């Protein structure tokens, strides 16, 4: 009971903050609830003074609730459906993901950027924006300011993509299929993919690229599994080596992010249930709860973020995000031209 009393004020604050941000995200999907929550949290943190009473709950929300959100995210992935529909887009998806990760790694070394921010921007740009950052952050033990910085960078280029990609696609003469693949692979976040594809459909009546772009995006989201597991194994090996060299006892439970395994299990349950005849709508509440938990966690991260410091140190992350974004767009279009979809 003592622990609950310590956590309750901070968790309640994040819950109250999340509700209007969730509604705003519904009204403005191109921005999204998580971005509204981070911005609101950062503004409130500049005015809020009762930090000590709520800090434990805010920290719990930014760490544990974020992990619960990732687990529930797994219920939105039907592996068999993605494998059936999204397989044709795999060459483009693999190429764009690899490109973003390589660009972020090289720039991390060249610009001497913090490894955690580089990793988060790399996976956020290449996989699925905020969801990938949410899944990766606990694995690499990223702090709240690193998460906020990465989300802000992803948000910036989501907005630019949603506003410019439909016009760019028309100027390049992309087919409806080609633009669906372009939007699904070159736009970072799921909500922004939806907004971009919907804008194209508005410009081209009857195009119906929204469904294809969404499937491509969900196929891309699957990369969360191997990438986070690879990062987890790498971090575990480093921790084990450090523990052994220092003569301390190594604990797998403390360093390995077991919530990722629950995320995989949730995906398997969804796949098995739908194969057995269960309607996909059965898992919709879990998906919505996952989105709401992410918004709660992003609000908590905003409350723990120094806005002034974030702005002062934002130049290099924004440049990295730009490089990843441009590289992904170019590779997506280049691969389409190479395999004859364009």
TrEMBL record:
<keyword id="KW-1133">Transmembrane helix</keyword>
<feature type="transmembrane region" description="Helical">
    <location>
        <begin position="319"/>
        <end position="339"/>
    </location>
</feature>
<feature type="transmembrane region" description="Helical">
    <location>
        <begin position="289"/>
        <end position="307"/>
    </location>
</feature>
<keyword id="KW-1003">Cell membrane</keyword>
<feature type="transmembrane region" description="Helical">
    <location>
        <begin position="28"/>
        <end position="48"/>
    </location>
</feature>
<protein>
    <submittedName>
        <fullName>YeiH family protein</fullName>
    </submittedName>
</protein>
<feature type="transmembrane region" description="Helical">
    <location>
        <begin position="255"/>
        <end position="277"/>
    </location>
</feature>
<feature type="transmembrane region" description="Helical">
    <location>
        <begin position="212"/>
        <end position="234"/>
    </location>
</feature>
<dbReference type="InterPro" id="IPR018383">
    <property type="entry name" value="UPF0324_pro"/>
</dbReference>
<dbReference type="GO" id="GO:0005886">
    <property type="term" value="C:plasma membrane"/>
</dbReference>
<keyword id="KW-0472">Membrane</keyword>
<feature type="transmembrane region" description="Helical">
    <location>
        <begin position="85"/>
        <end position="108"/>
    </location>
</feature>
<keyword id="KW-0812">Transmembrane</keyword>
<dbReference type="Pfam" id="PF03601">
    <property type="entry name" value="Cons_hypoth698"/>
</dbReference>
<feature type="transmembrane region" description="Helical">
    <location>
        <begin position="152"/>
        <end position="172"/>
    </location>
</feature>
<comment type="similarity">
    <text>Belongs to the UPF0324 family.</text>
</comment>
<feature type="transmembrane region" description="Helical">
    <location>
        <begin position="120"/>
        <end position="140"/>
    </location>
</feature>
């Amino acid at each position: 009971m003592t622990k609950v009393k310590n956590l309750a004020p901070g968790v309640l604050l994040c819950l109250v903050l999340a509700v209007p941000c969730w509604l705003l995200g519904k009204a403005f999907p191109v921005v999204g609830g998580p971005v509204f929550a981070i911005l609101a949290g950062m503004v409130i943190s500049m005015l809020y003074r009762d930090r000590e009473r709520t800090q434990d709950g805010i920290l719990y929300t930014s760490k544990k609730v974020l992990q619960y959100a990732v687990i529930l995210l797994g219920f939105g992935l039907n592996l068999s459906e993605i494998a059936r529909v999204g397989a044709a887009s795999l060459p483009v998806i693999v190429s764009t993901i690899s490109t973003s990760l390589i660009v972020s790694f090289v720039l991390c070394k060249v610009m001497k950027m913090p490894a955690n921010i580089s990793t988060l921007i790399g996976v956020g740009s290449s996989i699925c924006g905020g969801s990938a950052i949410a899944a990766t952050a606990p694995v690499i033990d990223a702090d709240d300011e690193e998460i906020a910085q990465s989300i802000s960078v992803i948000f910036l280029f989501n907005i630019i993509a949603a506003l410019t990609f439909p016009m760019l696609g028309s100027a390049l003469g992309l087919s409806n299929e080609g633009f669906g693949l372009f939007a699904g692979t070159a736009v970072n976040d799921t909500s922004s993919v939806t907004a971009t594809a919907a804008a194209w459909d508005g410009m081209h009546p009857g195009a119906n690229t929204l469904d294809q772009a969404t499937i491509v995006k969900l196929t891309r989201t699957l990369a969360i599994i191997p990438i986070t597991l690879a990062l987890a194994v790498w971090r575990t090996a480093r921790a084990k080596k450090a523990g052994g060299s220092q003569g301390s006892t190594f604990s797998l439970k403390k360093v390995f992010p077991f919530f990722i395994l629950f995320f995989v299990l949730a995906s398997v349950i969804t796949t098995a249930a739908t194969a057995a005849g269960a309607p996909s709508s059965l898992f919709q509440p879990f998906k919505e709860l996952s989105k709401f938990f992410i918004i709660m966690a992003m609000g908590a991260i905003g409350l723990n973020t120094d806005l002034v410091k974030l702005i002062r140190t934002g130049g290099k992350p924004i440049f990295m995000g730009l490089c990843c974004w441009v590289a992904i767009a170019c590779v997506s279009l280049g691969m389409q031209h190479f395999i004859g979809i364009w």
